UniProtKB/TrEMBL annotation, chains A, B:
Residues 14-255 form the MmgE/PrpD N-terminal domain. This is 2-methylcitrate dehydratase. It comes from Melaminivora suipulveris. PANTHER family: 2-METHYLCITRATE DEHYDRATASE, 2-METHYLCITRATE DEHYDRATASE-RELATED. Pfam families: MmgE_PrpD_C, MmgE_PrpD_N. Belongs to the PrpD family. Residues 275-444 form the MmgE/PrpD C-terminal domain. One of its GO terms (molecular function) is lyase activity. It comes from the Bacteria. Gene3D superfamilies: 2-methylcitrate dehydratase PrpD.
Length: 456, 456
């Protein structure tokens, strides 16, 4: 069963698509959504770039790369280094605030693993804004489809953003480096064979999530550079008998890899995060806000909240009963609902200041999760929010949302996105409000940039 | 089930062992064997450092690191860079010639993922030769046990040298950085969550093997540096419900992680490679040489050779029927046996010059593999060689070896190791014979070095 190296007839359609995607082929609404995602991502980086685990990775990256280079280390006073090391640092920063985007169907956070490596390489090679953004759309389309392909069994053990993230990063960087379809396929092979990232760290609130995005960005970037140098990878890293699905999934679906390529734009299906917590908590939080608003409930009216959730929420959030850190509290359904109930929004500041407040802890103890067949059946395509509130006076009230705020059908306006990015920048404290505002205004114009320069 | 961050009572014995191992605690025969492995590794690096895939990784590493640094890029005319980038390049070089060492029970190649990151860091921090070698023994002991723990089901899909390799590299580098046991455990968590490497690349003779060792070395090194900076990882990356075994093994055995720690020295169980091919081919090759010698067989006497092998050999070698590249031919049982039969030894030069020669191809076609219960039952602890040769005149002859040449009970002398290293260096052509010889003589004295300097 030995085959010769891939010929042009054996190129996977996903590799060909990623290698050939041009900005002008992307429908205008998708272009605009890509710009929305880009600005939204920038806020997350600025929010996270000084967090302790990110600072560790950034220190390491800067110590291993050149002390100056073509690629910006965002939020570190003009620091720069090589593309790989900048990608490592910026990707670590992108995910820590838990405010970056998410694609529901794949349970994949594309921005954190796509924009950092693409930006670093675009700055290094002098790409235009259009070239950068087309490459990022390629990264989104590939990463999301790989996440969908790997399926729910994969996500039970593996952090899909980390694993599919290597492919997403390779696609984006590969497009910028103008890989041929055959080279792109090799880049996929090299990226996929570096796919890694286990959920085990959540159990002790460890820092691995930041390492996961950093690793995916750097590994995918390396895969693309190597492919440009004609370094070869597996021909069929996805479905081969010793490939990704064989090793890391029990319910993989190869049809998802090419689902609607060029007509269905997964980029535009990506959701923005409104609450600063794990996305699995958002539907229930919004359903709670809905029922509280409808019945004008106060905190003291709430005796118990039952969240009717999908299995993935139980898998990820279930172990977190008594959060020991701010980061872990973002995976505590009880904490998120308590903050939402108390403040109308579970934002970064609310988490930092209030996650262990007595009122939060008291309400947290009144929240439980149960598996709901309807919610579970709709997941991961739709993230339905269903809660039952038992009131102190004995009523049973139901809260429902079918699209949590930030989902494509309930999306954020450009005004809301700008405000969110500036809130995140202010939270991070790495740049002045004026500098953040000027940068965000420039970022909205990315598609007009003749050349990608430093963002700050 | 939320736990607090690891306390001192929850340190895994393997992390504690790696953090506390000192050179003087290692029995003298094990110290000497470690020196043997060190010299043997150096030959493999020099043999591989100019190979095409290695050159790609080295170019990339040098482009992403500083143009000068504390760590040597071996075989590139005095080039140096940062520890991570040197580890990336040197680890890529270590495995390509298929002459580096192997531990049978774990089917793990320790040298390629232990010495490169440890050397790069030792050069960077000015460690002594003893500190370097104690760290490398820690890397061997950890990596081998992790490989044994992950088991045979893991190896069917995953390249254990790549996956367990991240842990081995983290242990070695972590020891050099003097991590506390708790920090070492965090380093294990960060290394394990970067564990990756799929066999799929073999099917098309792709270059991924070199990426695998490079990735393991760099990822493990990063994990150790981050842990020194108090970056945390999963407390139980091995056996946790979303850890390595849960994601990547169906027959993991946790008792192997601590098997004989401090009394059983897995380092000394490591075998040297005599033939320049996949280790799975060696038992049969030696058994063939044995039966040919015993019965004074010539090539034309051989009508058919049946190799009685373990399942792992069929899994790895089975797909390679008609090798398209030199590298792939090292995974072709037929090619290896043909070269051994023709030249008495399947070395690098024999592969390069003869793997597609008509005589080789003709004999290759006469070789088959069958699963043998006795051989399979002994594997992976013992790699038994069993062949049946059908002769042209109708005889059935049996060849047997119980320890292929290079195994601990049939090991190489220091003279053979020196000669092998110099042969490999000459093959690689990166350094002059005089420089190689001087370096090898110095390398034998590593335990006396007050400070690890450039090897060349």
């Amino acid at each position: 069963m030995t085959k010769n190296p891939p010929s042009s007839t054996a190129i996977h359609p996903l590799a060909r698509f990623a290698a050939e995607l041009r900005w002008q082929d992307i429908p205008e609404p998708v272009q605009r959504r890509a710009e929305d995602l880009w600005v939204d991502w920038f806020g997350s980086v600025l929010a996270g770039c000084r967090a302790r685990p990110v600072a560790s990775i950034t220190r390491f990256a800067r110590s291993q790369g050149p002390s100056e280079g073509p690629s910006e280390v965002i939020g570190h006073a003009g620091a720069s280094t090589s593309p790989m090391m900048a990608a490592l640092a910026n990707a670590a920063a992108s995910h820590v605030a838990e405010q970056d985007d998410v694609h529901n169907g794949s349970v994949f956070h594309p921005a954190a693993v796509v924009f950092p490596p693409a930006l670093a390489v675009a700055q290094s090679i002098g790409a235009s804004g259009e070239e950068l953004m087309a490459a990022c759309v390629a990264g989104y389309e590939v990463g999301i489809r790989v996440g969908e392909f790997l399926g729910r069994s994969h996500y039970k053990i593996f952090h899909t953003t980390a694993t599919a993230g290597t492919l997403a990063a390779a696609a984006a960087v590969g497009r910028l480096l103008e890989l041929s379809p055959e080279q792109m396929q090799h880049a996929f092979g090299s990226a996929g064979t570096q796919s890694a990232g286990l959920w085990e760290f959540l159990r002790t609130a460890a820092d691995s999530k930041q390492l996961h995005t950093a690793h995916a960005a750097a590994a995918g970037l390396m895969a693309a550079y190597l492919a440009r140098d004609d370094f070869t990878g597996a021909q069929d890293i996805f479905t081969g008998p010793q490939g990704l699905a064989a090793g890391m999934s029990r319910d993989s679906d190869p049809t998802r890899l090419t689902d609607g390529l060029g007509t269905r734009w997964a980029t535009a299906e990506t959701s923005f995060k409104w609450h600063a917590s794990c996305r699995h908590t958002h539907p229930a939080a919004d359903a709670l806000l809905q029922v509280m608003h409808e019945h004008n409930l106060k905190l003291q009216d709430i005796a118990h909240i039952t969240c009717h959730v999908h299995q993935g929420a139980i898998d990820v959030l279930g172990p977190v009963v008594s959060p020991a850190t701010v980061h872990q509290s973002k995976f505590s359904m009880g904490t998120v609902l308590a903050l939402a109930a108390r403040f109308g929004h579970a934002g970064l500041t609310e988490f930092d200041d209030e996650y262990l407040a007595p009122e939060t802890v008291a309400l947290r103890g009144k929240v439980s999760m149960v598996l709901d067949p309807e919610v579970d059946g709709a997941y991961p395509r739709r993230w339905l929010g269903r809660v039952t509130v038992q009131t102190a006076d004995g009523r049973q009230l139901t809260g429902r949302v079918d699209e949590p705020k930030g989902d494509p059908g309930n999306t954020l306006t450009r005004g809301e996105l700008t405000a969110k990015a500036l809130r995140l920048a202010a939270y991070g404290g790495a740049v002045s409000p004026a500098d953040a505002e000027a940068a965000v205004q420039r970022l909205w114009q990315v598609a007009q940039w003749p050349r990608v320069e430093a963002l700050l």
